[in-house]
Amino acid sequence: MPDQNKQEEILKAASTCFAQYGFAKTTMDDIGKMVGLNKASLYYYYKNKEAIFCEIITREREKFLCSLTEKIDAIDTWHEKIQVYILERQRYSQKTINLHKLSTKTSEQLQFQPIFRKLLKRFTISETKIIRRILDQALEKKQICPVDTHKAASAILLVANGIKQQQMLLQNHTMTLAQFDFDQLEDETRFTISLILKGLTVTKPLP
Question: What radius of gyration, in Å, describes the C-alpha atoms of the chain?
């Protein structure tokens, strides 16, 4: 059975390496040396650096979502809850990118790897549930038009992700995502999501 303390050391060392060298240039040897393990021993815990990275971002994301959920629960209006959620997740994505020094090219390549596609699916399911919960509450209070809240939540996420994806495609693949114009991305996302939310809003009281 893997030593849990050693796993924690590996994750901490990997985070340090990613921040220092960038994800693309970090090797399993770099991580192993930092925790005093040869490559064979390191493979006992994780089969590759992608698996380590997935574990790191999963843990980081769980902490982030916990704090963000508390934040949006304290907001009064349903549409502001959704706007804050969408924009905060975008800012969190920027923070993660900067912390691990991901390039546009590396980010795109990771999306096609099975381990990341599986992780993305899990993230999407959980995020859809969060937005759907907000919409369900608004629907119960008759603040939005009758709608399939699951489909509506999925559409909101799809649009937000689509805006980001399109902006990334326009960037130079050699640049780091830290150089990405996140201010423009945030403005476009806020504007577009607001249009969707206005379309859901009840303009006059429902009977």
Answer: 20
d(CA 97, CA 120): 15
Separation between Cα atoms, residue 145 and residue 98, nearest integer Å: 39
Say what the pTM is: 0.83
pLDDT tens digits, one per residue of 135-181: 999 999 999 999 999 999 999 999 998 888 777 666 655 555 555 66
In the predicted model, what is the mean pLDDT of the chain? Answer: 86
The C-alpha atoms of residue 138 and residue 142 are separated, in whole angstroms, by 6
Written as one letter, the residue type at 160 is A
42 and 79 in a common domain: no
Tell me if residue 75 falls in helix, strand or coil. Answer: coil
Domain that holds residue 168: 57-200
What's the one-letter identity of residue 144?
A: I
Angle between helix 49-73 and helix 4-21 axes, rounded to 10 deg: 90
pLDDT tens digits, 71-117: 999 999 999 999 999 999 888 887 777 766 776 667 767 777 888 88
- The total of structural domains in the chain comes to 2
| Residue among 2, 56, 5 nearest 26 (CA) | 56
Question: What span, in angstroms and rounded, lies between the C-alpha atoms of 199 and 181?
Answer: 28
